[in-house]
Every structure is written in structure tokens, then in C-alpha cells.
Amino acid sequence: MKQLEKQIAVVTGAGRGIGRGIALKFATEGADVVCVSRTTENSEKVAGEIRALGCKAWAHAVDVTDAASVNAAVEKILAECGKVDILVNNAGMTRDGLLMRMSDADWDAVLNTNLKGAFLVTRAFSRAFLKQRSGRIINVSSVIGLIGNAGQCNYAASKAGLIGFTKSCAREMASRGITVNAIAPGFVETDMTSDLKQELRDVVLKQIPLGRFGQADDIAEAALYLASASGRYVTGQVLAVDGGMVM
């Protein structure tokens, strides 16, 4: 039997990169998947890939920073699917710049997407999880939330905030059998890192004991562990998947 047979997962930021990797990994293990992305095109593309694997998939274009949009989408998802077993809050963005030159707009955009978005989506699903007395919530943070990074104070703050959010939710929901954990990816080969200049890549690689960037599948495997029966006694934890970068 596959590890996620007869389960339904919601993945935000599923249109590409790590989110796509997690959505496809869950489908290969038998889960039906709700693909949430900013655009219908991206979410539908990944949903099509999941259907090709023989699983059900739904595609939703949602602005995770807007409470009304999130609440409407969650209501529709629960009506369509009947239940949700796994929630992965992966939607994220960067707008890098040094603190002294960072605009209010760049700060707000990153905090609203990466942190407020996770709050809004989790809050919207929480009643259903609490009522069914089960559920797995996985928040995709970052090693930058653990160690900081020059030029990314907004991103670091959002990802560090996500860790605190994870631990607080874990304490609130544990009595109902719900686990809440975070994954902190290191540098992973995605659209977000593809623009890094070679000299910067070389500097980063020297900080990674395993000597390579990660792949989306490395993060997806960690998410699968936390979502599956193997992770049933793990909650409130931050799993760094970073090649040893912050050991």
C-alpha cells in the first residue's frame, strides 16, 4: 500500500519548484492533491501532471495574502473534496535588498506572502482539522530563517516568523491529534536560485558540507516523511534539509 493512499493534500505554491515537487511526490504515494498557485495556468499544469499519475487533482488560483480569497477557496476545496488530511504551506517569494534601501512595499510583499499567507490558509483549514481530530500541517521555512542573510532581512524575518508560528500551532493542535512541523530547505535548485551569479554559487557551495545544491525532490522526501505514518509522533519540529549547511 502506498504511504498516502486515500488521503487528500493541499499544497500552496504548487505551480513550480519545491511546491511542485511535493505535490508530485505525494501523488506518487497515492494522495489526491489540491494544487494552489497564484495563477490558474501554473496550478492547472501541475494538476494535469498529477492526474497523469492516476490520482485526482484540483487546481485553484488563490492570492494567499487576501483573507477573503483564501476563505472562499478553502470553503470550495472542502466542498469539493469532503476533507483535507495534509496541508503544505509553501507559497513564498523574495524581494532582496539591503535594509537601508528596502522599501515598505518590498517588506510588506514578502511578509504578507510568506508569513501572513501561511497564517490565513492554516486558520481557514483549522476548524476542519480540529473537527476531524487529525491532520498534518507542514510549513516550508528556510535555513535563512535560522541564520539570516545579508540583503534578505524581509525574507529571513518571514521564514523565522514561520518557525515560531509552527511551534505555536503545534502546541495548540496537538491535543486533537494534529501535527505541525516546518522544513527549512537550504539552497535548492529552483527558479528562485537559478539567477544566482556563478561567483555567489561558488561561495554558497563552500558552506555546504555535502558540496552540492539540493533538489526539489530532497525537500519533497522530507515532506513525505512528515505527512506519512512515519512522522506520526513528530510535531513542533524544524527539519533542516540543507546538506549540512547549518548543522
Features:
247 residues; alpha/beta; Rossmann fold; 8 helices; 46% helix
Provide a descriptive summary of the structure in words:
The chain has a single domain (8-233), classed as NAD(P)-binding Rossmann-like Domain (Rossmann fold). The chain has 8 helices and 7 strands; from the N terminus they run βαβαβαβαβααβααβ. It has helices at 17-28, 40-52, 67-81, 104-132, 144-147, 153-173, 198-205, 216-227; strands at 8-12, 32-37, 57-61, 86-89, 135-140, 178-185, 238-241. A 7-stranded parallel sheet has the order 3-2-1-4-5-6-7, sandwiched between helices. The protein is globular, with a radius of gyration of 17 Å.
Topology:
Elements: E1 8-12, H1 17-28, E2 32-37, H2 40-52, E3 57-61, H3 67-81, E4 86-89, H4 104-132, E5 135-140, H5 144-147, H6 153-173, E6 178-185, H7 198-205, H8 216-227, E7 238-241
Parallel strand pairs: 1-2, 1-4, 2-3, 4-5, 5-6, 6-7
Helix pairs in contact: 1-8, 3-4, 4-6
Mean pLDDT: 96
* CATH class call: Alpha Beta
Domain count: the total is: 1
* Head-to-tail CA distance between termini: 35 Å
Short description, anyone?
The chain has helices at residues 17-28, 40-52, 67-81, 104-132, 144-147, 153-173, 198-205, 216-227; strands at 8-12, 32-37, 57-61, 86-89, 135-140, 178-185, 238-241. By secondary structure, it is an alpha/beta fold. The termini are far apart.
